[in-house]
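Researcher: I'd like a candidate sequence for this fold, 372 residues long. If you have to choose between options at a position, lean toward the conservative one.
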């Protein structure tokens, strides 16, 4: 395809309730959407991408306004004078170091346009095998254990099949104990620290082993692969990495080191859905379970995540909740939870349409990028 126009849409959507992690309390999702129009064999098609970066560089080094700058100034110029396909975007962008979330968003828009032109769904393109995926929910840190237990109860009533508790030093053992006591040993339960601990916390974290958790996600720093391997030997709870896995190469290293028994796959964090698929394939060949993470995506990114999670190696429920877990109103049709599952879209591309009225209501800035 030949790219003919690219518009960046900055939007803001209020969350239905505050979402607190070890690094931030969030009450709104600011997001960056890419609307890309291209000429595909004489037809004009439009595809959409979503950048998963947060406004501040607290989850990872990337941040939203930085991504917008990188896309317009360094990434798009490397695509415009080529006949690009989704499969060659990564190749064209490789000279630019890092900036994986920015690259992923652009690749996503190209992919959506390409699949729409071909009339193919993303799930079928990937080779997805499931028609619906089990829905897990990520529960933020609450002020009191009582409020946390109440929130978990609400999600279980809604049908979520797996609970993930966000933890941090001082909000960990007792929170997990309270949820186990209230909801029993059978509840599929896991925790996510977002890099809030150090290896010196090993003896403390080992206390989590008593609660039969599915996994502990990213207790240590992004660059602490070897330390995660050491910690994994000190605990019986399976070690899962999120922030540390930024590419198929880092996934290969983590597996070889024994730093990850499980991998949280997020397309944005690893530079795109095609790299995410490669990590799925690598993990599957190594007998490592993967599950699909979330970044509070709008319906666009959520649609793509649901298709990714329908690949056969995604053997654990993902952080793929219904749209209303975060948003009263989405910018696409909402994803709903039915019998604990979310249905994989079957329409062309990601299979969802941005609702113009909703885009208008949520937009904070629109930028038409130069193709010169
Ligand atoms: O989209 O359901 C979601 C959020 C899942 O907890 C979630 N994401 O570290 O896995 C993670 C976090 C990253 C975003 S926190 C603002
Ligand atoms: Mg995480």
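Model: Candidate sequence:
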């Amino acid at each position: 395809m030949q790219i003919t126009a690219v518009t960046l849409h900055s939007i803001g959507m209020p969350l239905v309730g505050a979402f607190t992690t070890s690094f931030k309390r969030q009450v709104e999702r600011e997001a960056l959407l890419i609307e890309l129009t291209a000429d595909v064999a004489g037809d004009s098609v439009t595809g959409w991408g979503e950048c998963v970066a947060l406004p501040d560089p607290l989850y990872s080094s990337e941040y939203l306004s930085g991504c917008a700058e990188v896309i317009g100034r360094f990434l798009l110029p490397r695509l415009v004078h080529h006949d690009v396909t989704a499969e060659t975007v990564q190749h064209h962008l490789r000279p630019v170091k890092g900036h994986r979330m920015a690259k992923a968003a652009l690749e996503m828009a190209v992919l959506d346009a390409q699949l729409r032109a071909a009339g193919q769904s993303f799930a079928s393109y990937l080779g997805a095998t499931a028609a619906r995926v089990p829905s897990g929910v990520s529960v933020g840190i609450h002020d009191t254990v009582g409020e946390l237990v109440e929130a978990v109860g609400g999600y279980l009533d809604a049908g979520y099949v797996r609970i993930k508790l966000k933890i941090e030093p001082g909000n960990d053992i007792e929170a997990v104990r309270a949820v186990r006591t209230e909801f029993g040993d059978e509840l599929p339960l896991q925790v996510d620290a977002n890099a809030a601990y150090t290896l010196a916390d090993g003896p403390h974290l080992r206390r989590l082993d008593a609660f039969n958790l599915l996994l502990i996600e990213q207790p240590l720093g992004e660059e602490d692969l070897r330390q995660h391997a050491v910690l994994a030997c000190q605990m019986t709870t399976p070690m899962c990495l999120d922030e540390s896995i930024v590419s198929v190469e880092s996934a290969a290293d983590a597996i070889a080191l024994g730093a990850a028994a499980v991998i949280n796959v997020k397309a944005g964090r690893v530079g795109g859905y095609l790299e995410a698929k490669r990590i799925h394939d690598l993990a599957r060949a190594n007998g490592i379970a993967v599950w699909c993470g979330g970044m509070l995506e709008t319906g666009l990114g959520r649609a793509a995540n649901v298709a990714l999670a329908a690949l056969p190696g995604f053997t654990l429920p993902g952080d793929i909740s219904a749209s209303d877990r975060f948003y009263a109103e989405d910018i696409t049709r909402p994803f709903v939870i039915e019998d604990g599952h979310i249905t994989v879209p079957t329409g062309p591309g990601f299979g969802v349409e941005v609702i113009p009225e909703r885009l208008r209501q949520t937009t904070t800035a629109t930028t038409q990028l130069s193709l010169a």
